[in-house]
TrEMBL record:
Naturally occurring in which organism (per UniProt): Phycomyces blakesleeanus (strain ATCC 8743b / DSM 1359 / FGSC 10004 / NBRC 33097 / NRRL 1555)
Top-level taxon of the source organism: Eukaryota
Membrane-related topology note: Multi-pass membrane protein
GO cellular component, as recorded: endomembrane system; plasma membrane
Gene Ontology MF term list: transmembrane transporter activity
InterPro entries linked: MFS, MFS_dom, MFS_trans_sf
Protein known as: Major facilitator superfamily (MFS) profile domain-containing protein
Main subcellular localisation: membrane
Taxonomic classification: Eukaryota, Fungi, Fungi incertae sedis, Mucoromycota, Mucoromycotina
Transmembrane parts of this sequence: 7-27, 47-69, 76-97, 109-128, 140-160, 166-184, 204-229, 235-257, 269-291, 311-332, 337-356, 362-385, 397-421, 471-493
Residue span, Major facilitator superfamily (MFS) profile domain: 10-498
Pfam family, one: MFS_1
Keyword Transmembrane: yes
Keyword annotations from UniProtKB, A to Z: Membrane, Transmembrane, Transmembrane helix, Transport
PANTHER family: MAJOR FACILITATOR SUPERFAMILY, VACUOLAR BASIC AMINO ACID TRANSPORTER 4
Length: 513
């Protein structure tokens, strides 16, 4: 097959992989409460999103490390697609919430591989000059997946069944699997060592400890909100997380021959700043993707598809931010300017979103969402270009994975915290509601599930809607604070010039911006 055609196939499957990962991350956002209600697991509904993000977080550095050692694109990408297919199948056939959560974790692990491999392969097959254009294509597919996910998910929930959210992912991942296995060309520098000998070099202890720490913190947040923060399950999970992090630090710095988290990257101040900046971006992203649909359904009584449609301004501005700044870099080639601009836009957007209540107009909400989407589009595209330019060429692959890891880590922790806070604030706010209204709300289950608010008599709905409005308002203080931290971090990001190749010297600090 001609090299140009191979390049087209490889680029195409990278674009489709990015689209699929984001599609399945967002497709359930307007459907989570409906899915949890059907599977009798409303208290665990945050895990429908969190499990996917945990799997994605844990898999990205692992798959990247395996790719770096084995250099077999078709093997790693094909395995990721196969994992995604299995996860989709488990989710589609789920009859309990725990089975669904297990499937979402497997699905996330496969999706994490697809996403990080897409960016790594692009960095590997495209020149420095061409790379930002291909990454812009990935950004567009990211945006399209984000736009279409809530709409498709809402439509399937309202008119077919939520199980088709996962059958669709199964079909698309099957296509990726076939293309990866039959049309991917391997690089000429593949090591001749056996696969088994290469796998022995993987830092499996680091992988287990990293996954354990992530799972423990999310379990602690879930148990704390349901059982109480003094419950042994909650503080036991927090303690386990702390122990796992301490052990991870010891293993990575003292014992691992080839660490999961290379010292050459984490001793690079400029790279670390970008990583923590993306941690903030991830936490902001899920505030809109998962909490906004809840707000639309609870406060305004819209159905799942309408709540997805209301996110379109957010996604359109995300795409505009990604494409617009990629084009603007040719004329003003300094990534830091756009990262500071994106961080400032996030502060403005979430600050304005705090004014939303049950009486807010749709136009105002669309404008506020636009600011937030624009911020994400700018931050993700320019952040990746920036961090790939401040590390050594040999570290570009793992740096790309860590870039996505921190963003999804922020998203996983963020969505769990937001769900915990919504539940906490709803319980706190009902103290101001007259007993007569509370009796009716409890009779219909509206305080546990906002989808049941409209089942109540109309004259009793207002105070309960206001309970959720106040809870959502309080929750959105958190992404505003996170956006403010992100803005401060953006001021310390290195002012990398567009088109500057990854560092080739031993000490990246010695290279001028």
């Amino acid at each position: 097959m001609p090299d140009k055609l191979v390049f087209v196939f490889q680029t195409g499957v990278c674009v489709l992989s990015t689209f699929l990962m984001i599609l399945n991350g967002t497709i359930i956002s307007p459907a989570m409460t409906k899915i949890a209600t059907d599977l009798d697991g409303v208290d665990s509904q945050a895990w429908i999103a969190s499990a996917f993000l945990v799997g994605a977080c844990a898999s990205q550095p692992t798959y990247t490390f395996v790719f770096y050692l084995i250099i077999k694109r078709r093997v790693v990408l094909g395995f990721g697609a196969l994992s995604f297919m299995i996860g989709c199948l488990v989710c589609a056939l789920s009859h309990t919430i725990n089975m669904l959560i297990a499937g979402r974790t497997i699905q996330g692990a496969g999706g994490g591989c697809l996403l990080s491999m897409s960016f790594i392969i692009v960095a590997d097959i495209a020149s420095v000059e061409v790379r930002p254009r291909i990454q812009a294509l990935l950004g567009i597919s990211y945006g399209i997946g984000s736009v279409s996910g809530p709409i498709i998910g809402g439509a399937l929930v309202d008119y077919v069944t939520w199980r088709w959210d996962f059958w669709l992912g199964f079909i698309l991942s099957s296509i990726i699997f076939v293309v990866a296995v039959f049309f991917f060309k391997e690089p000429a520098n593949v090591s001749r060592d056996s696969v088994l000998s290469k796998l022995k070099r993987v830092d499996w202890i680091g992988v287990v400890l990293a996954m354990g720490a992530i799972c423990c913190i999310l379990i602690a947040l879930s148990f704390g909100s349901i059982l109480g923060w003094t419950d042994p399950h909650a503080y036991g999970a927090f303690t386990a997380c702390g122990i796992a992090l301490i052990l991870l630090f010891i293993v990575e710095t003292k014992f691992a021959a080839e660490p999961l988290l290379p010292k050459s990257i984490f001793s690079n101040f400029h790279a670390v700043v970008v990583f923590f900046f993306m941690l903030c971006v991830g936490a902001q992203f899920v505030a809109n993707m998962f909490i906004s649909p809840m707000l639309f359904q609870a406060l305004y009584g819209v159905d799942a598809i309408s709540s997805g449609i209301r996110l379109v301004p957010y996604m359109v501005c995300l795409i505009f931010g990604a494409i617009g700044t990629t084009a603007a870099l040719k004329f003003f080639p300094f990534t830091k300017f756009f990262l500071v601009l994106g961080a400032a836009s996030a502060v403005i957007g979430y600050g304005l979103f705090l004014t939303v209540n049950e009486n807010s107009s749709w136009g105002a909400q669309a404008g506020y969402l636009g600011f937030c989407g624009f911020a994400l589009g700018i931050s993700q595209t320019n952040g990746l270009v920036n961090v790939q330019s401040v590390v050594a060429e040999k570290d570009v692959a793992i740096t790309t994975a860590m870039f996505n890891f921190f963003m999804f880590m922020g998203a996983a922790i963020g969505v769990s915290i937001y769900q915990v806070l919504i539940r906490t604030f709803v319980v706190h706010n009902v103290a101001d509601v007259p007993l007569e209204y509370l009796y009716v709300a409890n009779k219909f289950g509206a305080l546990k599930n906002y989808l049941f608010i409209r089942n109540m008599p109309v004259e009793y709905q207002g105070p309960i809607i206001h309970v959720y409005a106040r809870a959502m308002h309080s929750v959105f203080i958190i992404p505003l604070g996170v956006a403010a931290v992100g803005f401060i971090l953006s001021l310390f990001i290195k002012n990398v010039r567009f088109g500057q190749p990854a560092q080739t010297v031993k000490d990246p600090e010695n290279v001028q911006a």
